[in-house]
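Attaching the record inline, Q. Sequence:
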Amino acid sequence: MVKVGSILLSMILLMSGCSLFEKENLQPEDQQEDEAIVLQPEIEVVAEELRVPWSINKVNQVFYVSERTGNIVKIDNGKMERQQAALEKPLAKAAEAGLLGFVLDPRFAENQQAFAYYTYENAQGQFNRVVVLQLTGNKWTEERILLDRIPSAAYHHGGRLKIGPDGKLYITTGDATTPELAQDLRSLNGKILRMNVDSSIPEDNPFENSYVYSYGHRNPQGLVWIGDILYSSEHGQSAHDEINLIKPGANYGWPVIEGNESKAGMETPLFHSGDETWAPSGLAAHNGTLYAATLRGNAVREFELGKNITSPVITGVGRIRDVFVDGEYLYFVSNNTDGRGNPDDKDDKLYRVLLTNLN
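Structure, as predicted:
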């Protein structure tokens, strides 16, 4: 692994009037002035030259990282193998489309299967679907469809997949740039969905004969549990990004309310970005603290539950798509090759940092 030296982002302005952040070109233009000062812990590069990575998975000491371009990258002791995902439909080429969510089956060691969420287009339009992928040798093949024809657009796909502590598969879907769908319980858009891994509807879902677990979401991007409590990250409209505590059957307000607005029968977020834009993506948790990858925020942000405190803890590597906690480390992937970043010749990268260095 390549170590990235500790960087002290000084609070002292240089005589020229430029901060150290400006000199090193590490501060995004939209970052708030009071959040420009970060004591950067030492981080290590685990892998590099990833192509628009989206989801981090790890089993034993082996990583499987999905790429939006349609591959799964296996990383074993520093050795990378790019494995093709043979999908039944060609990936759509819309701005945020592609192979998005990817999560290993809890029985992966026995069945070599995973769940994936991808965007495709045909004569009827553009859609997202959830499928089972089978790994044989070094190739993944679409084995069966769990859920299909989730309406899609150029933006707001959602796409995160996670297995909950209850063994169910959770799926985030965006509003597909049609906000009113988020309030329509007949639509799969703007929701967090919950299904059994065989695609059947759990009997204890909040709405009868429906995959819908919560609704009123604009573009939910991250899911994580602390115990049996589910949290989600969500992109707001022109800032007003959110971290929500998810309750079954609850309405999270979009497009009626957002940020700190309130309305009877609708939930308000635990945290919101106000007029700043984080563009939060993947979520992870450790010892009661949430960690969010942020894209436009160019940081891993820490959210201290119960204290209403949030701050960036990792900066300087550009856009960040996903985070993953395993053992004593927090892992995260940059997303500078997604068309909106400024990649260097080795981007994108999988990094790790000791959790104790974030405190």
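The chain has two helices and 27 strands. Residues 2-358 form a domain with the Neuraminidase fold (CATH 2.120.10.30).

More tomorrow.
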